[in-house]
Amino acid sequence: MMPLTASDTVSCTVVLADEQATEALGSAIAGQVRASGEGLTVFLEGNLGMGKTTLSRGLLRGLGHNGSVKSPTYTLVEPYEHLTPAAYHFDLYRLGDPEELEYMGIRDYFLGHDVCLIEWAERGQGVLPEPDLIVRLEPHGRGRVAHLNGGSPRGRGVVQAIGAGHVV
């Protein structure tokens, strides 16, 4: 796949005052997924403790999940197949080699119909597909800032809707 260039992407930045705002951003992304009826591959970037799992929780709850959401650090993937569309939350922090993803059938998760949330995606480089959306979380005062970058038509649509302020 060809790398994305700046002209292929759409970006916006959202200031997140607290955990509730981070969950609300995840829920807003879920709203866009529900509206489109299509899946979405999201790479979640940021250091430990930046809110990647919190954002995932908001997105999964926005898709209708009512239970707890934990980071699948040891299992690599937590399925949420009861949702529409089905969602899969990956945490590749403990991945030793990207080739390990091939053994778990990683490509089957990215058929375009499901939502795939991937923490520490850089550890799967060379095996993972290009993301529709990248969300990079960084500290900002007492809260966080989320930089959203949409590289596919679906990802660009999400970023445009959130950047226009219609969904957060």
UniProtKB/TrEMBL annotation:
Keyword check for Transferase, yes or no: no
- Residues of the signal peptide: none
- Which keywords belong to this entry? ATP-binding, Cytoplasm, Magnesium, Metal-binding, Nucleotide-binding, tRNA processing
Q: Name one GO biological process term.
A: tRNA threonylcarbamoyladenosine modification
Where does this chain mainly localize?
Answer: cytoplasm
The question of whether Nucleotide-binding is a record keyword is answered with yes
Residues forming coiled coils: none
Q: Which GO terms describe its cellular component?
A: cytoplasm
Looking at the record's lineage, which domain of life comes first? Bacteria
Q: Where in the cell is it found?
A: Cytoplasm
Give one GO molecular function term.
ATP binding
Task: Cite the SUPFAM superfamilies for this sequence.
Answer: P-loop containing nucleoside triphosphate hydrolases (SSF52540)
Query: According to its UniProt record, which protein family does this protein belong to?
Result: Belongs to the TsaE family.
What protein does this entry describe? Answer: tRNA threonylcarbamoyladenosine biosynthesis protein TsaE
**Organism of origin:** Marinobacter mobilis
